[in-house]
């Protein structure tokens, strides 16, 4: 029987390519965080890494990709994590667990998380507001949740869509707060709180309004 492709060793040239790409991204984050996204050129990043501009563009197609690359890899991980969850688990719990598995990767690397936060906060609005999932990925997740909920129907599709979109909206708002709050709670902590609010409501946090009889 043939061995699984995932068990095959990565060729040396590919390992070297991945290592250089990681070095370029890390260097760019440090420069963006220090000087601001718009003030850093691709030539400056290449010089800091010790490579030529032509080598830079062989590994990174655009400057924007240095910020979007990590976001796009995270999107794929969220979808993969959802599909790994037990089929009999509550769908909202599975979505939340998949998202938190992604943000938990920031917990043990405070320095990288802070560099990424400052770099993203310095970027133009269209880069800062990159969504948690692309439209195609969001639709794929909605379809997967709908299948989890039972026999396909308009009602199931509506339920799945509202569930997924409400959770994503809560997480994206937590992300915006994290970007703007220097020294505040971690992204993982804010994401967990936002998911709890979206899943369980505001009964324990919102002040109760007095009833008419008590006025």
UniProtKB/TrEMBL annotation:
Organism this protein belongs to: Nocardioides fonticola
Residue ranges the UniProt entry marks as DNA-binding: 41-60
InterPro entries found in the cross-reference section: Homeodomain-like_sf, HTH-type_TetR-like_transc_reg, HTH_TetR
Keywords linked to the UniProt accession: DNA-binding, Transcription, Transcription regulation
Keyword Transcription: yes
Record's protein name: HTH tetR-type domain-containing protein
Chain ranges of the HTH tetR-type domain: 18-78
Superkingdom of the organism of origin: Bacteria
One family name in Pfam for this protein: TetR_N
Cross-referenced Gene3D superfamilies: Homeodomain-like, Tetracycline Repressor, domain 2
Entry keyword Transcription: yes
């Amino acid at each position: 029987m043939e061995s699984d492709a995932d068990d095959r060793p990565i060729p040396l040239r590919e390992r070297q390519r991945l290592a250089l790409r990681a070095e370029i991204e890390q260097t760019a984050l440090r420069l963006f965080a220090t000087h601001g996204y718009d003030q850093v050129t691709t030539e400056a990043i290449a010089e800091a890494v010790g490579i030529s501009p032509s080598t830079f563009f062989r590994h990174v197609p655009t400057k924007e990709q240095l910020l979007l690359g990590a976001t796009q890899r995270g999107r794929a991980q969220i979808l993969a994590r959802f599909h790994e969850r037990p089929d009999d688990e509550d769908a909202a719990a599975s979505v939340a667990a998949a998202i938190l598995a992604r943000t938990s990767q920031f917990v043990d690397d405070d320095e990288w998380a802070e560099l990424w936060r400052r770099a993203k906060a310095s970027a133009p609005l269209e880069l800062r507001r990159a969504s948690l999932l692309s439209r195609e990925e969001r639709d794929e997740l909605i379809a997967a949740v709908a299948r989890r909920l039972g026999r396909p129907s308009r009602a199931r599709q509506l339920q799945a869509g509202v569930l997924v979109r409400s959770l994503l909206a809560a997480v994206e708002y937590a992300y915006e707060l994290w970007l703007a709050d220097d020294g505040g709670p971690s992204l993982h902590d804010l994401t967990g709180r936002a998911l709890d609010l979206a899943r369980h409501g505001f009964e324990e946090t919102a002040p109760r309004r007095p009833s008419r009889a008590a006025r």
